[in-house]
Write a structure and sequence with these properties.
The chain has five helices and 17 strands. Strands 8-9-10-12-15-16 form a six-stranded mixed sheet, with helices on one face. The termini are far apart.
């Protein structure tokens, strides 16, 4: 896991990412997960059409440069990119680079928020690739992105498609106008819901968040204080590692994929699902 702050200097952001990826590989990591939209500041604090110039095609410059690094180091890397699909259509896209440098697959963020400081609907078209895990040399990865992490349906569908772990590149923090106690309550809920996905599906979860303060370019708000606290769990929601709020750097964590078999035998939630009685889940609301 790589947790770091970002500035307006995109080249410096990428250089820091690459140095951290090398540090992970030096500790024999086989999978490296980066935060959401890691190349740039979190530009969705404002609605400004010219910021779409930050988008890039997939394949493109980032998949090429990080692909070369993945091949050199023999690691799988989960990228999070502002994808330019065609003029006027952009996506918030996770791209998985396999250890040979090739693109193993991509996932386009399905749930798009629109909240103060998080104006993502202005920039991103909702994903259209569904909830499909990506096969890699380290296993089948159920990659989702940030706002997706609040939805048990997304985690479940990845699980039902054979994901061996759930991965969430993330950019979430507190609005400075919220009281510290409220921000802490929200942060705890953020981690708790994802640990719940881990328990309900018997899968490890890896969540990598941004850290640091990023000012609002418009000056309208005080900006965002990202929570950090990237973490990893085992398949019963047990915490295996966690960053602090302002910590930058790496954590290398051992993930035991074989433990899922043991956990699901004891807690057979998938076996006992009443799939004959869940039709109303496809409704917006029952009444």
């Amino acid at each position: 896991m790589v947790q770091q702050s970002c500035t307006d200097d995109i080249k410096a952001n990428i250089a820091k990412l690459q140095a951290n990826i090398r540090a992970c590989a030096a500790q024999r990591a086989k999978l490296v997960v980066l935060q959401e939209l890691h190349n740039t500041p979190y530009f969705c604090q404002t609605e400004l059409a010219s910021l779409c110039d930050l988008a890039e095609p997939v394949p493109g410059p980032s998949t090429e440069s990080f692909g070369a690094l993945a091949c050199e180091l023999g690691v799988v890397i989960v990228l999070s990119l502002f994808e330019r699909r065609t003029p006027g259509i952009y996506h918030n896209t996770a791209v998985v680079i396999d250890s040979d440098g090739s693109i193993a697959g991509k996932y386009r963020k399905m749930h798009i928020p629109d909240d103060p400081g998080y104006y993502e609907k202005f920039y991103f078209t909702p994903g259209d690739l569904g909830f499909n895990p990506i096969d890699t040399s380290v296993g089948r990865l159920g990659v989702l992105v940030c706002w997706d992490q609040w939805y048990p349906e997304a985690a479940r569908l990845m699980s039902l498609a054979g994901a061996e772990m759930l991965i969430y590149p993330t950019a979430i923090g507190g609005v400075a106008t919220d009281e510290p106690e409220e921000q802490e309550t929200q942060r705890n809920a953020w981690q708790l819901v994802q640990r719940g996905h881990s328990v309900a599906n018997g899968l490890p979860v890896i969540t990598v968040n941004r850290t640091g303060h990023e000012p609002d370019p418009s000056g309208v708000t005080p900006g965002l204080d990202f929570w950090g606290h990237s973490f990893a769990t085992g398949p019963q929601g047990e915490l295996l590692a966690e960053f602090s709020k302002g910590e930058e750097g790496i954590r290398v964590v051992d993930i035991d994929l074989d433990r899922t078999e043991y956990v699901r035998r004891g807690w057979p939630f998938l076996r006992d699902r009443r799939i004959d009685a869940y039709q109303d889940l496809l409704k917006r609301y029952r009444f």
